[in-house]
Amino acid sequence: MSESAAATWGKTGSYLDDQGRGNGLMAWLTTTDHKRIGLLYGIAMGIFFLVGMTLGLLIRLELLMPGQQFYDAKTYNVFFTLHGVIMIFLFIVPGIPAIFGNIILPLQLGAEDVAFPKLNLLSWYVYMLGAVIALTSLFAGSSPPDTGWTFYAPYSISSGGSVSLAVLGAFVLGFSSILTGMNFIVTIHRLRAKNMGFFNMPLFTWGLYATSWIQVIATPVVGITLLLLLMERLLGIGLFNPAMGGDPILYQHLFWIYSHPVVYVMILPAMGVISDILPPFCGRTIFGYKAIAISSLAIAIVGYLVWGHHMFTVGMSDTARWIFSLLTFLVAIPTGVKIFNWTATLYKASIEVRVPLLYALGFIFLFSIGGLTGLVNGALSTDIHVHDTAFIVGHFHYTMFGGAGIGMFAALHFWFPKMFGRMYNEKRATWAWGLIMVGFNTLYFPMLIMGIMGMPRRYHDYLPEFQIPHAVSTVGSWILATGIILMVVNIIQGIRHGKKAPNNPWGATTLEWATTSPPPLLNFAKEPIAPKDGPYDFTGRKPGESHEEVLT
Amino acid sequence: MSTQVQNTNAGHVHKDSIGAKTGMWLFLFTELLLFGGLFIIYAVMRGEYTHGFHAAAEELNVWLGVTNTVVLLTSSLTMVLGVSALQRGRAGLAQLYVISTLFLAGTFLLIKFFEWGAKFSHGVFPGMEHLHNLEHGEGVFFNLYFMMTGLHGIHVIIGMIVMVVVNNRLQSGTITRANQGILEYTALYWHLVDLVWIFLLPLFYLTN
Amino acid sequence: MESTNALQSESWDDEPGGHATHHHDEEELHPVADEKQFKVFVALIILTAITVGASVMYPGRIGQGVAFVVTPLKATLILMYFMHLRYERAVFVVMFLVAIAILATVMGLTFLDYLFR
Q1: How far apart, in whole angstroms, are the C-alpha atoms of residue A59 and residue B121?
Q2: How far apart, in whole angstroms, are the C-alpha atoms of residue A385 and residue B129?
Q3: What Cα–Cα distance (Å) separates residue A96 from each residue in A93, A180, A191, A270?
């Protein structure tokens, strides 16, 4: 089964070009090249994101004023359900690993591809299958699901909407996540370049490593939970149904045993992106490399221990509640380590402000707000007040969107030249960033205020006292959407007409920049060897030195 | 899963059996956690419905459960002996062991079929009237029983299908000592199936 | 900028043919002796008999207690010998222990709720 090729290093050209199999649809659909697979994910996820974003805009539109404006409460419930299902399962969970992990990880490790290239293609097909099933629930049956993306029993059991389809879709998507995680773990263990010990890997790789472990270990738990939900609906197995002696709180336990760790699946790669972006734009190595690397593992581990904080008000024992609260505070510590170290990296550095850095700074700002509001939620007493209010919605959008989402935009603008061999228009990109930052805060900050004032979440209507913050928030959604659309248009323009990019436009030091932009099919013309002095060695770099092409 | 893993040294495409085995073990972890979720439910429900569980467990035939346990343990033995045989270059012997494993797996399923059949004929089956009318504790016990042994049974069937394919490839010489990984990983999977059953036995059959 | 990347550095061509750091991908196969596996099998059968015997003869706490202790023991035998963990590289054992530890921990934390209501 093993092909002994003559040295597979040495091929040149671009992975985007015809590889002798034509460059039509079939060549792309049967590729096992990790870079193409990453792009396949990117295109699909981009489209799904726009669908999810449209649903979000529709939600905000209805909330512009009190009373029913455009559609009824049942439709509203459908919209926030599908918005959540799409944004979480189709977009932010596969997220950075599916696109940038696939494209960049082997490059950063100095490998030709991931450990299991065919399995990688399979993960994409499984992803597409799950996504299609989930999206079909929008149209099939008497009504789309209206349970919320959390599918809480017993309503998810009795609801007449196409819950089963949506749940099945999520179940299938879980397999894709697991396969990606498995692939990355083996790739990182087995395919690192010469000189690249674990503590010589880039921090993006560390983030992916920790993430992959969560994907492998946590996903099966939601897998069985969703499967059981299906069995409840289809066969009447009454494990979560109180009418049959089942326990709906048990459903919540099992659901959140996965769904809390999964937020670390979302954020750890984004944090890895930030750690990789700061050094080149600060012209110096990252502060506290080892601490950041280990903090990724720490977050992954402690992340398994805190899920009860989603359930403080449902009837858990007091013992469980205060222990989960305590553990929740603990997980903030390794997170704090990262924020401090990033700040220390920036402090008195020779900073070059370019678009990737803008997004990285945006991440730090927005995620910090998200994290701080998380403390409010983690503290038992305050959570009683804010649970199921708009405060929670604000919190998780600041962390998931302001964190992982902005992290994805950062990755996009950072690795764009590497992926496409072109540059985007930086002025437009900066404008888009500005609109996104203004729009984002206008949209979500009022939710934090409203929540404390008592505005419940998932409500189609509200009392007049919440009118102003709601209106502000809705306007914010329009600004944000404009920014995002501008960003997307700019990216597409860049792909099609952008100026040719050098191999290393940012003067970065990790291995992906040591090959051409875009890379050849097998990534490197010659076997790469990792730099001995760590992945972010800028010694010898003069402050203010041009970041134009550093190598030929 | 392809066991062809690229190795960067000198740019040759090697097989990386350690990488492939790592991948297999990672897959096994996912199975552990999958069943683990069900074990969590069982543990919670058992605490909730101690009496109902004991009562319902009486309805299961201990000796069928024990027989199935012995059957699966034996099948694990034949599987591991098959792996050893192939690793020593004795593909024909390995084939015999794989076929024995298949036979034992089939026996397991047959016994399960009769067990389930008996329950079905008494109306004790998910969705059926009688199960629905049992007291909650017993109902939950049986729902868990069918769910867990059902999921386990599906894994047995999948294992058998893989073994048939492996057997064919041993026969045709596609699998040899040089690429014995596939048989080794199939065996690992099978041992996991056995492992799960080891825990199902006391949980469902010895609860009284 | 010798640290930037491999393409710039000249050292990557130093090792003759690039084969010097050839790590051991092809494992040497060390099948466990058949007699040993038979012994493990017999042990497993005996342990099963003990568990069943205890639950039949001493139903209730004692029977359950025996099962609680013996079953993980049987599992360990299967893992160590049939699944070869005793002879594998440490990394496999560590990975397995991590997975089990996480499962045990989430189970335990769930019980924090149910046991203390």
Answers
A1: 51
A2: 44
A3: 8, 11, 20, 7
* CA–CA separation, A135 and C64 (whole Å): 48
Q: How big is chain C, counted in residues?
A: 117
C-alpha A339/C-alpha A548 separation (Å) is 29
CA distance A48 to A57: 14
Name all chains with 3 or more CB-CB pairs below 8 Å to chain A. Answer: B, C
Structural contact between residues B40 and C106, judged by C-beta atoms closer than 8 angstroms: yes
> Which of B32, B195, B206 is facing C51, going by the closest CB pair?
B206
Answer whether B30 sits within 8 Å of A220, measured CB to CB.
yes
- Could you tell me which chains touch chain C, where touching means 3 or more CB pairs under 8 A? A, B
pLDDT, mean of residues A3-14:
55
CA–CA min distance B101, chain A (Å): 26
* Bond preceding residue A519 cis, omega within 30 of 0: no
> Hey, is the C-beta of B121 within 8 angstroms of any chain A C-beta?
no
What spatial distance separates the first Cα and last Cα of chain B, rounded to whole Å? 43
**CB atoms inside a 10 Å sphere around CB C54:** 20
| C25–chain A nearest CA distance, Å | 9
* Domains of chain B, start order: 25-205 (1.20.120.80)
Q: What percent of chain A has pLDDT over 90?
A: 88
The answer to whether residues C110 and A253 touch, using CB atoms and an 8 Å cutoff, is yes
- What average pLDDT does range C21-36 have in this prediction? 71
Query: What gap in Å lies between CA A423 and CA A421, rounded to an integer?
Result: 7
pLDDT in tens, A401-442: 999 999 999 999 999 999 999 999 999 999 999 999 999 999
* Exposure on the CB side of residue A346, measured as CA atoms within 13 A: 17
C-alpha dist (Å) from residue B106 to A159, A238, A381, B75, B112: 40, 30, 57, 10, 10
What is the interface pTM, i.e. ipTM, of the complex? 0.93
On chain B, the residues whose CB falls within 8 A of the CB of C110 are: 40, 44
Stretch 86-115 of chain A: residues touching chain B, C-beta under 8 Å: 110-113, 115
* C31-42 confidence digits (pLDDT tens): 889 999 999 999
Collect all residues with Cβ–Cβ distance below 8 Å to B26 and sequence separation of at least 6: A181, A182, A185, A186, A216, C95
Phi–psi pair at A103, nearest 5 degrees? -70, -45
Helix (H) or strand (E) holding A544: none
Whole-angstrom distance, CA of residue A123 vs CA of residue A487: 28
Chain C: closest CA distance from residue B56 (Å):
15
Specify the CATH superfamily of domain A25-514: Cytochrome c oxidase-like, subunit I domain (1.20.210.10)
Provide the 3-class DSSP secondary structure of residue C101: helix
Report the residue of C14, C52, C102 to disrupt the B interface, i.e. the one with the largest count of B CBs within 10 Å. Answer: C52
- The single-letter DSSP state of residue A260 is T
Overall average pLDDT of the B91-119 stretch: 96
- What tokens appear for C57 in the block? 């003869």
Q: Which residue of C has its CA nearest to A217?
A: C99
In the block, tokens 């794989």 appear at B98
CB contact under 8 A, C114 and B70: no
Contact C91 A530 (CB under 8 A): no
**Does B38 lie at the interface with A, CB-CB under 8 angstroms?**
yes
Which ranges in A17-139 belong to alpha helices (H)? 25-29, 34-62, 73-85, 95-96, 102-109, 117-136
CB contact under 8 A, C109 and A320: yes
Phi, psi angle pair for C88, to nearest 5°: -85, 170
Count chain B–chain C contacts defined by CB atoms under 8 A. 126
Q: How far apart are CA A409 and CA A45, in angstroms?
A: 13
Domain coordinates of chain A in residue numbers?
25-514
Check CB contact under 8 Å for A537 and C3. Answer: yes
Residues of chain B contacting residue A530, judged by C-beta atoms under 8 Å apart: none
Which residues of chain C are within 8 Å of residue B201 when distances are taken between CB atoms?
48, 51, 71
